[in-house]
Design goal:
Distance between the termini of chain A: 61 Å
CATH architecture of the largest domain in chain A: 3-Layer(aba) Sandwich
Number of helices of chain B: 14
Number of domains of chain B: 1
CATH class of the largest domain in chain A: Alpha Beta
Number of helices of chain A: 20
Shape of chain A: globular
Order of helices and strands of chain B: HEEHHHHHHHHHHHHH
Radius of gyration of chain A: 25 Å
CATH topology of the largest domain in chain A: D-Maltodextrin-Binding Protein, domain 2
Strand order of the largest sheet of chain B: 1-2
Largest sheet of chain B: 2 strands, antiparallel
Strand content of chain B: under 5%
Structural class of chain B: mainly alpha
Shape of chain B: flat
Number of domains of chain A: 2
Number of strands of chain B: 2
Largest interface: A-B, 58 and 54 residues
Distance between the termini of chain B: 37 Å
Strand content of chain A: 5-15%
Oligomer: heterodimer
């Protein structure tokens, strides 16, 4: 009897342990990553890049590693612009979602780097859906990479820099090297006035238009000539709004004529930036102590979206989705009239819905009231306590130098952050595919990208407060002014915490 | 007479205990410690005492998450009833019955994420099957944005959980059914029982161990629900936080807002709730075992 009782006790204990494991499993690193975050979205929605189509189905980090040992070269290399590189340095590079599609490019660039800076060895890893989790864990464990590919558009650089985890670059990089980059891109994501990233590749924001919905299916006569369009909204491609405030009327027309609703997404991870670019809203007072986005400009910005929700012209789940992939999927299904992205994602449309690719049109993205299209796309930063600062800086700079970036642009429609890169005949060649249609205008577009959003302390908490209030206005009939005033009060409390 | 202490059982237990200590016990203790700190994962934690727990008490989203998690427990009785009915249905020697059994099991092996994405499409405004059927047969004039309705987010997520789990639980009950002697049904028929009475007086009592077991595991799974909410709401937790559950809120605090300390406090509350459930369920399981 006693032993029965005790074995039951042991059984109970084991069962409790197993149940405890279940709880801990729930409390551990979640399955976030199960939602494939393939795209990177800038704070102004227009800079979206998908770099690896083939990895769509890969839910967890795929690590590609390579170590290449190269014999030193005798002659100085013009690409060796960083002095004092530590001999025999070994630096680790993490990229975001570039493997396996761009393995050859990354490996060849590393090989060229190691020839340029003999003796330096590079270990490369590509992290994907779990990039942010992996990086945070690596910082916590003291094993963070020396050189890190961080999104400027998503605000990752300032996030890590404000925690003291990145190396400030201004006093470590010669002026001649800084001058390689567009000034607007070098001066992005500043924290206390200091820059922490080498600007890397950028995206030209475009609208992909499903012409069957937007314009209609072409009516072809017996000679194969298009005589008109039927079944769509009957709109002209060239009439696509040039500014954000034209979207509500456009969506209403499309819904009235076709029943389709717009595939527009708020940048839910950085709503303040969206307010700045789209609504020209001043979000902080001059002294940075008070949140001021409950101004008439802020209210007007929010009211535009409230009106679209009330009119039923926008997909509400997409509007506040955390994942840009949701918006892309809707467009890929052929049910959405247009979708804002970068031309680099056109290849996904081509691969996953060739029919849609056949009736795709591309126009420039509408510009917000700030007149600035947005921030840059990707940057490369250096870990604050790297053992080999000069080697790490050299590697970050090398990947972002004109030659490396031009080679990258030739593979995928992303654009360099350096004016001189555009001297390459590739950029002046006539576009052939629709993916390249923005190439001729890319230099001018990229040159105007700028980070005009002030650094906001406790940004994630502030954004969550703003998101909660914005939802109250969008979905719970709270007046836009009231919602933003509540959010601004909370924001002021958070930034002074 | 003294018993000689043998090391053998402990040696057999050692590998498992080591793994449990490293991967369960240590993290649990670490989470307990972090729940008293301000910790953002990338910087060293700062001791804040009971501040996280005090903040929990005054956090309306936490209470909403707690309520939603308890509401989610509704799936447990529904799952039990439906899977028993399904098991009874497929426990007949009909032609092709194995194919049906396999089909009901497909959602279980498909994975929550894949099924969740499919369900998003089902309920989609633009061309979703649900809207297509309802508009097609004239029940709706216009398609509805189902997942954007705060009142429907949680019920749709529950339906998804039920749909995914049904096949697995059906298999458990099917195994239980096949252990019930046919003689009992024959005797009941002789006594004049109808079909319902047979199931009520023979099948249900016969399945009691399985019912308790499934009540344990499905209620624990329900209270820890995350994937369904994440997928169906696009990572938002539902419009106006309508679908936020405890684990989702924990995730948001830890990995979105980088408040790992606060998230740890949520985890500790969740742990206590789960432990309470486990103790109740184990007691029921033991009682069920004794009554057999």
């Amino acid at each position: 009897m006693q032993s029965q009782k005790s074995s039951r006790g042991i059984f109970s204990a084991l069962l409790m342990l197993a149940l405890g494991a279940l709880v801990l499993a729930a409390c551990g690193t979640p399955a976030t990553p199960q939602v494939v975050k393939e795209t990177v979205v800038s704070t102004v929605k227009e800079t979206v890049v998908s770099t690896v189509k083939e990895t769509v189905a890969v839910p967890q980090t795929v690590v590609a590693q390579q170590t290449v040992v190269v014999e030193p070269t005798a002659a100085p290399n013009p690409e060796a612009v960083i002095q004092g590189v530590e001999p025999n340095a070994e630096v680790t590079l993490w990229t975001f979602w570039l493997s396996p599609t761009f393995d050859d490019y990354i490996k060849s660039t590393i090989e060229r780097f190691e020839q340029t800076y003999p003796g330096v060895k590079v270990k490369w890893e590509d992290h994907q859906a779990t990039f942010q989790d992996d990086l945070k864990n690596s910082f916590a464990a003291g094993t963070a990479p020396d050189v890190i590919n961080l999104s400027v558009g998503e605000g990752w650089v300032s996030d890590y820099a404000s925690k003291g985890l990145l190396l400030p670059l201004d006093d470590k990089v010669p002026e001649s090297v800084k001058d390689i980059y567009f000034p607007g891109l070098w001066n992005e994501q500043l924290v206390d006035g200091k820059n922490y990233q080498f600007p890397w590749y950028n995206f030209v924001g475009v609208e992909l238009i499903n012409t069957e919905i937007y314009r209609g299916k072409p009516v072809v006569d017996k000679d194969g000539n298009v005589t008109g369009y039927e079944g769509g909204a009957g709109l002209k491609i060239e009439d696509f709004p040039k500014t954000i405030d034209g979207l509500p009327a456009l969506c209403k027309t499309i819904k009235d004529k076709t029943g389709a609703i717009c595939d527009i997404r708020l940048t839910v991870n950085d709503l303040l930036a969206q307010m700045v670019y789209e609504g020209n809203v001043k979000i902080l007072s001059e002294d940075g102590k008070k949140c001021t986005f409950d101004s008439p400009e802020g209210v007007a910005w929010l009211q535009m979206y409230v009106d679209m929700v009330k009119a039923g012209t926008v997909d509400k789940t997409i509007l506040v989705s955390d994942q840009d992939r949701d918006a892309l999927n809707l467009f890929l299904s052929g049910k959405a009239p247009f979708y804002q992205t970068g031309p680099n994602l056109i290849r996904i449309v081509r691969d996953q819905n060739p029919g849609l690719y056949g009736y795709l049109a591309v126009v420039p993205q509408p510009i917000g009231k700030s007149g600035v299209a947005g921030k840059g796309g990707m940057g490369i930063s250096v870990k604050g306590d790297t053992k080999y600062p000069n080697a790490a800086i050299a590697l970050a700079q090398f990947f972002t130098n004109p030659e490396s970036m031009t080679e990258f642009s030739k593979i995928v429609p992303v654009y360099p952050s350096s004016p001189s890169a555009y001297d390459d005949p590739f950029f002046s060649a006539k576009p052939v595919a629709i993916e390249d249609s923005v190439k001729p205008a890319a230099k001018e577009y990229i040159s105007k990208l700028a980070d005009i959003v002030p650094t906001v302390p406790n940004k994630a908490d502030v954004n969550q407060a703003v998101l909660d209030s914005v939802q109250e206005a969008l979905f719970n009939n709270v007046p836009a002014q009231q919602a933003l005033t509540a959010a601004a009060a909370k924001c002021t409390e958070l930034i002074n915490k | 007479m003294t018993k000689k202490l043998s090391l053998t059982p402990y040696l057999f237990l050692a590998p498992a205990l080591t793994i449990i200590a490293v991967f369960i016990l240590y993290p649990a203790l670490a989470v307990f410690y972090y729940s008293f700190t301000d910790y953002n994962i990338v910087q060293a934690p700062k001791w804040v005492g009971f501040e996280n727990y005090q903040n929990l008490v005054s956090d309306p989203i936490f209470w909403k998450a707690l309520l939603n998690s308890f509401l989610y427990l509704i799936v447990t009785p529904i799952l039990i009833v439906l899977s028993i009915l399904l098991a009874i249905a497929v426990n007949r020697p009909l032609p092709g019955i194995n194919a049906f059994r396999a089909l009901y099991y497909v959602p279980v092996i498909s994975g929550t994420i894949a099924v969740g994405i499919a369900w998003r499409w089902l309920f989609d405004y633009n061309g979703g099957l649900i809207n297509g059927i309802l508009v097609g047969v004239g029940i709706l004039e216009q398609p509805v944005q189902w997942l954007a309705d705060p009142a429907l987010t949680l019920p749709i997520a529950m339906l998804l959980t039920i749909w995914i789990g049904l096949g697995y639980y059906m298999m458990v009950f099917l195994a239980g059914l096949q252990n019930i002697s046919e003689d009992l049904y024959d005797a009941a028929a002789i006594d004049g029982c109808n079909a319902f009475q047979k199931h009520w007086y023979i099948t249900i009592p016969g399945l009691r161990p399985q019912i308790v077991f499934i009540a344990v595991i499905s209620s624990l799974a329900a209270i820890e629900v995350f994937n369904e909410i994440y997928i169906l709401t696009g990572g938002l937790g539902g419009i106006l936080n309508c679908g936020v559950t405890m684990v989702f809120y924990l995730w948001r605090q830890a990995f979105r807002l980088q408040h790992a300390g606060y998230a740890s406090a949520i985890a500790m509350v969740l742990l206590l709730i789960t432990l309470a459930f486990s103790i109740i369920n184990i007691r029921l399981l033991e009682r069920s075992g004794q009554s057999q």
